[in-house]
Amino acid sequence: MGITREGKHKRRETGGRRAKFRKKRKFELGRQAANTRIGEPRIHQVRTMGGNRKFRALRLDSGNFSWGTEVCTRKVRVLDVTYNASNNELVRTKTLVKGAIIVIDAHPFKSWYESHYGVKIGVKKAGETIQEAMDMSDKSAKVQEKLKKRQTGRTLAYAIDHQIASGRLLAKVTSRPGQTGRCDGYILEGPELAFYQKMMAKK
After folding, report:
1. What is d(CA 184, CA 73) in angstroms, rounded to the nearest whole number?
2. How many CA atoms lie within 13 A of 190 on its CB side?
3. N or C: lower Cβ tally within 10 Å for the chain?
4. 51 to each of 157, 177, 180, how far by Cα in Å?
C-alpha cells in the first residue's frame, strides 16, 4: 500500500463513517519524507504532477543565511541542529526541516562586518567580549572618512557579539530542504533569539 494524502478514510465531523466507494488515486499520492541530514550535498530530482520537479535534499552542509538588521546575506556552513519546536527526535537525528533552529559558522559575517565598519568584533578580553577599532593607517583618506561615517550610528547587540566570539550563530531555517533542495534562513536576533535561548535552556 502506497502513501496517500486523501481523507476519505476519516470519519465525518458528526462521527459517522464514510462509504468506501473508490480506491486510491495517483493524484492523491504522498511520498516518503526526505529527512535531510547534515553532510556532503546529495540532492535527488523528483518528477511531480504536471511534469514539474522537486529537489529532494538528502544531505546538505551549507546555505544562504541573512543578517536582517545589517542587510547582509552570506553562504555559510551548517554545523548543528539545536532545537525544533515540533519534535525533539529531529534534533537528536540532526534533521534539517523548515522552522528548525540550527548553528551556523559566524566567520563570513564577522569578516564582512569588520571590513564594512572598520571595527573588530567578538574579541575576548578578561572573560568579556569587546569591540576594538581597527588600524586604518594603510587605507586612503577617503576610505577612512567613509568608515568613520558608518561607525556613527552603528550598534551591535551583545548577544550577537558574544555568539560571534564563539564562532557560531543561531539561525532559523525558512526554506523547505525536502522540496527545494536548499537550506536557507536568517540569523536569530532580539526577542526571537532570547525566546529560543530560553526554550533551549529549559531542555
Report:
1. 10
2. 6
3. N
4. 48, 20, 16
Displacement of CA 63 from its chain's centroid (Å): 8
Residue reference for cell 504532477: 49
Provide the b/e sequence for 33-46 (b: ≥16 CB within 10 Å).
ebebbbeeeebeee
Q: Is the pTM of this model over 0.90?
A: no
Length of the chain: 203
**Rounded Cα–Cα distance for residues 1 and 20 (Å):** 16
With beta carbons less than 8 A apart as the criterion, state whether 121 and 131 touch: yes
Show pLDDT as tens, one digit a residue, over the chain (203 residues): 689 999 888 999 999 999 999 999 999 999 999 999 999 999 999 999 999 999 999 999 999 999 999 999 999 999 999 999 999 999 999 999 999 999 999 999 999 988 888 888 877 776 666 666 666 777 788 887 888 888 787 888 888 988 998 899 999 999 999 999 999 999 999 999 999 999 999 86
